[in-house]
Amino acid sequence: MSHYAQHIQTVRERFDAALSATGFSSVLVYAGQPRVAFLDDNPAPYKVNPLFKYWIPVTQSPKSAIFYRPGEKPVVYLFQARDFWHAAVDVPEEEWQQHVELKIIDDVQAIANDLGEQLKDCAFIGENFAQPVADWPVATVNPAPLLDHLHYHRAYKTAWEVDNLRQANLLAARGHLAAREAFFAGADELRIHQAYLSAMNFRESEVPYNSIVALNEHSAILHYDIYQTQAPSESRSFLIDAGATYRGYCADITRTYARQAGFFADLVEAMDSAQQELLSEIKPGVSYYDLHVSQHLKTAQILADFGFINGSAEAIYEKGYSSAFFPHGLGHFIGLQVHDVGGFLRSDNGDSYPRDERHPFLRLLRPVEEGQVFTIEPGLYVVDQLLEAHADSKDINWDKVDQLRPYGGVRIEDSIVVGGDGNNENLTRDAFSKLD
Ligand code: GLY
Ligand code: MN
Ligand code: MN
How far, in Å, is the centroid of ligand 2 from the Cα of 243? Predict the structure, then answer.
């Protein structure tokens, strides 16, 4: 059986279990449709419902839907406008079409008409902000127990999903190499971003999130996406956090570069080694929370080694200093979404782990298990807003912090597939080494 055939079988089984556990007899997964801006008729970039592309690798066919009743073949209503304003999106003949009953429609109401009375007992999953979908007499819209059940199991990726994630990482790595080259050639942030897109043959709306393309102190702004159009007179450091999608699956990669050998290059290298050491601690049974704390201790050690803070790694962590330099979570699930859902779910019945007060931005609290895919993305930055709380600290060597500030900071981010007993796959490093 092909990887896709196995995948859709798994998706069917997961829907069977979720529907049976939550008492619904069928489901209608709506692909969604673009929203328009206020007082305008221009559509915003369209993002397909992730639970639609979970079934089939179709990401650019808004107003389509999948109807599934356990035991029956899924029905795909594929919307293709008969419309002289827009070009029809080409949906090539592919394997997925053998696994579904395909119905081409050119009017979204045809879905409801075709389903008739069946609509009344089905659970609708998707956005229904527009007519006529908003008025369809479905049993319920986005019931939380059904979504939780599906989201819990989505954490375990099928072989086909991992194939797609591998390709997404290859694409993004290609973009990253072009961006690195543009940085060393002295380009400004916008030109670097354009080099990134161009190397992947992507338009901007195709990347899974706004690329973070940051020179110098901009690297300390966690979600920096302004893109200056003038290069700074001295381009000292470069942090790029940028992804790609392949058949609906996302890559999310960060790399940091120093223009010259010296203090900042050494810091990047130390962070890279610490990240790789952390990668070797990932195995089924450990908790992702403990990995996050382990990374804090490594980051704290680097803060001590580089003379930013006096004290042991443990003391630096306990006093909260490492959180000022590393304020975000170690990572998150990744797959159909960059921040794949389900990181707080304790089980498929919707129970969840309480958010941790010490680490409020950590999005993943589940134990590590085989088949999960998540990012590992430690960082170390000068965020003045967070350092204010420690302004009177005698432990912090402020002249050292001042030395780092013009470089912004460092983040290194890879995506990992958890294998049995520590036999993990690093999708990101493997992609870079294929291209080198
Ligand atoms: N690029 C967003 C993140 O790393 O989570
Ligand atoms: Mn990430
Ligand atoms: Mn990222």
Answer: 9
